[in-house]
């Protein structure tokens, strides 16, 4: 069973309610029908004008009889959602009228459905920017207790099974925080470790990457990684984590043994934490394009409820797979 097939299997077992806020977007309409057809979710809700969605589905020859269609502006929950949103945002100067009006926006309405337990997970980004998706998530779904900064990870699946866990690895953060502080880097590492458990079904071995291994170079950049590593060790004493490590020391056993003798992680890492977004984004694309790996994500991590952001260039199958991946995170 492939990784994606396993995620589909887990999602089918969980039978959750998935919200796709971008209900008039053609690929999203097709994906909604496909998710229900395959039994990946017990319920799928498309958000937007019902007539517009129905017309678009007709043009696409898509049967939405098994899909729930919700128009936020006329939904009976709008007032309750508006009241909740006002309580969340009044300290920022938002008026109650603004809060109610903002609930007409499909992204905010979808996130509020998940926040209040009217749905289990949300997937968006086929037509909205990552910034828009993250803003709605941060203001409504919020982060988990004790986490100040949500981040992202990619599940990397390499054809050579010697790497990571049977060829599968977690890369983080490759899409969200441009230049994390030491504290943010520590949170990224802890969240990525949890993503490793969720998606790879194995215990994480976390490598905090740098251009230095164990003091071979000493700059503010390397010291930030060292501080972040220590923060994670103090907060999660049972987690196998080490740093700072160069990439070869992290994943090649012979190099790890030489550069970081005695390390339980060096040479055997399955979760790689990049020092900043430039390194992370370049790193995952190098492995994907030149290394022939499949990159699944970005998957958002650290939020209180499951939410995923799509690329605006995504395919119907990408949305289906991301839906399964997101549902697999549900309790």
Automatic annotation (TrEMBL):
It is an enzyme of class 2 (transferase). One of its GO terms (molecular function) is phosphate acetyltransferase activity. It catalyses: acetyl-CoA + phosphate = acetyl phosphate + CoA. InterPro entries: P_Ac_Bu_trans (IPR012147), P_AcTrfase (IPR004614), P_AcTrfase_dom1 (IPR042113), P_AcTrfase_dom2 (IPR042112), Phos_Acetyltrans/Butyryltrans (IPR050500), PTA_PTB (IPR002505). Residues 3-327 form the Phosphate acetyl/butaryl transferase domain. This is Phosphate acetyltransferase. Transmembrane segments: none annotated. It holds the Pfam family PTA_PTB.
């Amino acid at each position: 069973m492939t990784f994606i097939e396993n995620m589909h299997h887990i999602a089918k077992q969980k039978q959750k309610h998935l919200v796709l806020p971008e209900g008039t977007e053609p690929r999203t309409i097709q994906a909604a029908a496909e998710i229900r057809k395959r039994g990946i979710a017990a319920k799928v809700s498309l958000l937007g004008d019902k007539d517009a969605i129905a017309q678009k589905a007709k043009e696409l020859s898509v049967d939405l009889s098994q899909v729930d269609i919700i128009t936020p502006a006329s939904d009976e929950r709008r007032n309750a959602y508006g009241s909740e949103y006002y309580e969340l945002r009044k300290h920022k100067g938002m008026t109650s009228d603004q809060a109610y009006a903002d609930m007409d926006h499909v992204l905010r309405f979808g996130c509020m459905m998940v926040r209040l337990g009217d749905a289990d997970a949300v997937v968006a980004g086929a037509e909205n920017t990552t910034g828009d998706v993250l803003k709605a998530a941060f203001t409504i779904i919020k982060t988990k207790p004790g986490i100040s900064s949500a981040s992202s990870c990619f599940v990397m699946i390499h054809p050579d099974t010697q790497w990571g866990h049977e060829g599968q690895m977690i890369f983080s953060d490759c899409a969200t925080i441009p230049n994390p502080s030491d504290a943010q880097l520590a949170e990224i590492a802890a969240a990525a470790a949890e993503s490793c458990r969720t998606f790879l079904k194995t215990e994480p071995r976390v490598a905090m990457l740098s251009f230095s291994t164990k003091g071979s170079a000493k700059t503010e950049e390397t010291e930030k990684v060292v501080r972040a590593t220590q923060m994670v060790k103090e907060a999660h004493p049972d987690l196998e984590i080490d740093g700072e490590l160069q990439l070869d020391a992290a994943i090649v056993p012979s190099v790890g043994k030489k550069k970081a003798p005695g390390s339980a992680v060096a040479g055997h890492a399955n979760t790689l934490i990049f020092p900043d977004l430039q390194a992370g984004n370049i790193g995952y694309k190098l492995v994907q394009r030149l290394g022939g790996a499949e990159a699944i994500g970005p998957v958002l991590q650290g939020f209180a409820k499951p939410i995923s952001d799509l690329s605006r260039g995504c395919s119907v199958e990408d949305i289906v797979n991301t839906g399964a991946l997101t549902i697999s995170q549900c309790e």
